[in-house]
Amino acid sequence: MATPSNYHEPVLRKNMPELDSIRGLAILAVLFYHGFYWSTNPSSFKLIERTWILATWTGRMGVNLFFVLSGFLITGILIDSRDRPQYYERFYVRRALRILPAYYGILVLLLVTRFAPWPFVALSSVYLSNLTPLFGIGVSYPVLWSLAVEEHFYLIWPLFVRNLSLANLATCSVSIIIVTPLCRVASFYFDLHKGITSYVCNDYTWNASDGLACGALVAILLRYLNVERRQMLRVAMLAFAGAALMWVLCLPFGIWTRQKAVGAALQNSAWNIAFVGFLMLFLLLGTSRLKYLVVNRYLSFFGYISYGLYLIHVLMFSAYDGLVKRFFPFLAEAADFETLCLRFLIASAASVALAYTSRRWFENPFLRLKAENTAP
Q1: Would residue 9 count as lying in a domain?
Q2: Residue 340 belongs to some domain of the structure
Q3: How many domains does the chain have?
Q4: On the CB side of 340, how many CA atoms lie within 13 Å of its CA?
Q5: Is there a domain that residue 327 lies in?
Q6: What is the pLDDT of residues 293-332, one digit of tens each?
Q7: Which domain holds residue 354?
Q8: Is the pTM of this model over 0.85?
Q9: pLDDT digits (tens, 9 = 90+) for 208-248
Q10: Is 4 contained in some domain?
Q11: Residue 183 neighbours by CB under 8 Å, 6+ apart
Q12: DSSP letter string, 176-214
């Protein structure tokens, strides 16, 4: 842990408000991705408009940022509590109170609105939404795949943390970071052998675990090593430089597209490495005189509602499209940028309102139970 001084707080604290800003940035990135790039044909827009739409493609990496952050937070919680009684019970009860109410709420909503067929919802109810293609069932509500990956992580990672030393746990994390891209490229060639190029396999847990392992590694090293702030800054800069170098070196080989082997294997890896640097930089700034740069009330608000907003926003975009097609067909037929922006504003506002309502009136009572469960 960084040594406190007259000017700096400890890097690891019980409350780290700068991480709420990271959540806010991650969910906004995903929101813009689904609002503009996803299911939109950029080629039909003008140059400046097309540039904006293409730029929002990077928003899908907000999920990777969530993974890195989640790996960091969950691993830290597990390490700090592994010598306490009822280690497993406390962890799983608290996770259930945080995750399950809103999650099962959205599953019920998917059934009621007939947005997703019951076989997909049934498998999603046991957190297999990212593996439904293996059962011959399409992914009807795409955002659920990342929650399945995280739930699998929550299921098995506490066992590793409880029984391994920090050194062995770090080795395990590094192994996952190395093996996961190999699994992705193996899946790529397996699909290619069948004559298809599919992105679905990237959502399988064994192909999407390296972001969680990157965050876990940061949590482990900050506890295992006596890392000084200057060393943390160097590591963060090295992470940014390493990610940029990976892009530059692999660009001629197709890292920019997952339709090529290098991109399938390493595109996510480069982003994950960059997000490690991003996380460490936020931790440093958040404990310095410059904390105002990374502690922002607007981003914190989006971080506060990020879980519910992530769950509901795709359904709201779909609801908007359905209502417009039925009652305002002239808007549905329009293919201009202004109409796309109007869609984004209305559907996003509805999503934010519902997510805030869910957090305050539905999720918070369960979160109070979660807080009570932290008592010795």
Answers
A1: no
A2: yes
A3: 1
A4: 20
A5: yes
A6: 999 999 999 999 999 999 999 999 999 999 999 999 988 8
A7: 17-372
A8: yes
A9: 999 999 999 999 999 998 889 999 999 999 999 999 999 99
A10: no
A11: 204, 206, 207
A12: HHHHHHHHHHHHHHHHHHTT---SGGGGSGGGS-HHHHH
